[in-house]
Give the backbone structure.
Amino acid sequence: MHILVIGGAGYIGSHVVKALLNRGMNVTVFDNLSTGTKINLFDNADFIEGDILKYEQILFAMKQNVDGIVLLAGKKAVGESMENPMKYAFNNINGVVNVLNAMVESGVNKAIFSSSAAVYGVPQYSPMDEEHPVNPMSFYGFTKHETERLLKWYDELKGIKFVSLRYFNAVGYDEQGDVKGLEENPQNLLPIVMEAAIGKRDKVKIFGNDYETRDGTCIRDYIHVTDLGSAHALALELLEKGGASQILNLGTSQGSSVLEMITKTQEVIGRPVPYEFAPRRAGDPAVVTAKADKAREILGWEAQHSDLDNIIRSTWNVYNKQ
Ligand code: UFG
């Protein structure tokens, strides 16, 4: 299978590319390098520099004998999406429409979409399964859900089969060290913890220690990007075999608190990570964890790299070299 990985030079995308190459697929990366980097490209994957907002560019890439696509390109900062919804509408909705139309025009009918737990909004129960009501709290989450709705219509009307993968908290780095690109100005917890560990920032601010959790800090479901990668490969194989469209959670159902992440990091790297307690961040639910039984049943997928030790060690191996 020849797969076009749109956004394949990014943090998650590059791990997906590696997983597809490992399963013997041919890969072409399509990326505008706005947040992705050439450092993340693999020698044995082709690369087309281009932008999903430019229809001719994505159409050109789609016409390179592509059997299926993985769509990761998009904006992903929850806070920014609330301040600048126009940017998110443009990139995450107009861009998706271009990709889908280019698929129809070039006869490509298999798509894996990088969705998010953000579609659910405030959890009414945890762990959340795919039947949990969808009620995004951010414009970012709204764009992810809109894409899923577009995919359903393009499936019904144009026969595009899709698997939408709702990631929980993506973390970790390739354990063989094949992905080295770091995100600039990271917004997520673990990169921030790493930057504090190497002295790139003073300390980690823990947003809230008065939540109703075991230590008062928020609990999230951290899933290693290598595990996300293997789910994409399995999802493509499912569609190749004629499987029906699916929406699947990807998480471990194990929650870790912010404080546990910091404590574990200190333990694994053998260095202090300075931190302080700060006020709650608006919009953070206390606990977000995934029920991922459906991905297990339908894809035969298991998270195999997502123990905290492994997540932290693989991330530290990249940050420690900075
Ligand atoms: N946190 C801190 N200090 C920081 C950064 C984060 O205490 O400097 C805390 C947050 O309050 C939260 C946890 O660490 O409790 C994880 O925060 P992240 O920002 O890393 O991740 P979120 O759970 O907020 O968001 C993630 C993805 C989003 C997605 C969301 C859906 O990054 O893309 O899950 O659940 F929308």
Summary: The chain has ten helices and 14 strands.
